[in-house]
Write a structure and sequence with these properties.
The protein has 208 residues and is mostly helical. It contains eight helices and no strands. α1 packs across α8, α5 packs antiparallel against α7 and α7 packs antiparallel against α8.
Length: 208
């Protein structure tokens, strides 16, 4: 039996995920930076390969971490639309998943405080993605325009999301406790904010 063709809902889900991945990768490239070439890289080629792979792996891990809440919330919204699952059931599955991660963390990196802040973020994202998946259009820009109608309404969502993300980042910084954490978080938030502002302008046009 041949592979089933993707439905409109599948396409919309994939386009939203693609948009989130693109944002995460661009933030990662700024925060992690580029691999500097040293004298050893020139003299011993395997060093260059190792360093490139090390930086690539770091960017991949950062991207996955950045997408963690987004992917859980998007899957929850997808199940709500496709399976008729209730919002509470979708949130329940997210709580179960994050609870499992919390229970399995033996190093104390994923704290209760981080999880609580992330749950607030994922509740907001769940409603956002549900709104997009139910909107007209297939590409991300069309879904946003039909779901939010005005630049002001979408910008208000972005502002609320960034506010909650900052709370998550502060909780993570307190848990990790490294000296470099505040600088990394600041660069991450600044980059994400700039990219999202550009996204709003791309979809709705420049503010008058």
């Amino acid at each position: 039996m041949g592979k089933l063709l993707p439905t409109i809902l599948d396409t919309k889900h994939e386009n939203i995920l693609t948009q989130e991945k693109a944002l995460a990768k661009r933030v990662a490239s700024v925060v992690i930076g580029q691999n500097p070439v040293t004298a050893w890289d020139v003299l011993i080629p395997i060093f260059f390969v190792f360093n490139v792979l090390k930086f690539k792996r770091a960017r991949e891990i950062f991207t996955l971490n950045f997408l963690f809440t987004k992917k859980l919330a998007l899957q929850g919204a997808f199940d709500m639309v496709k399976k008729g699952q209730s919002r509470e059931d979708a949130l329940g599955q997210i709580r179960d998943r994050t609870s499992q991660i919390l229970a399995s963390d033996k190093e104390g990196i994923y704290s209760i405080k981080i999880r609580q802040k992330q749950m607030r973020e994922m509740e907001l994202l769940l409603d956002h993605y549900f709104r997009l998946l139910n909107a007209d259009g297939k590409d991300y820009g069309s879904m946003v325009k039909h779901a939010y109608r005005t630049r002001q309404d979408f910008a208000a969502f972005v502002k609320e999301l960034e506010g909650i993300e900052k709370e998550v980042n502060r909780a993570a910084s307190q848990t990790v406790g490294t000296v470099s954490a505040p600088d990394i978080i600041s660069k991450m938030e600044e980059t994400a904010g700039r990219l999202r502002k550009a996204q709003v302008e791309t979809i709705f046009g420049s503010a008058p």
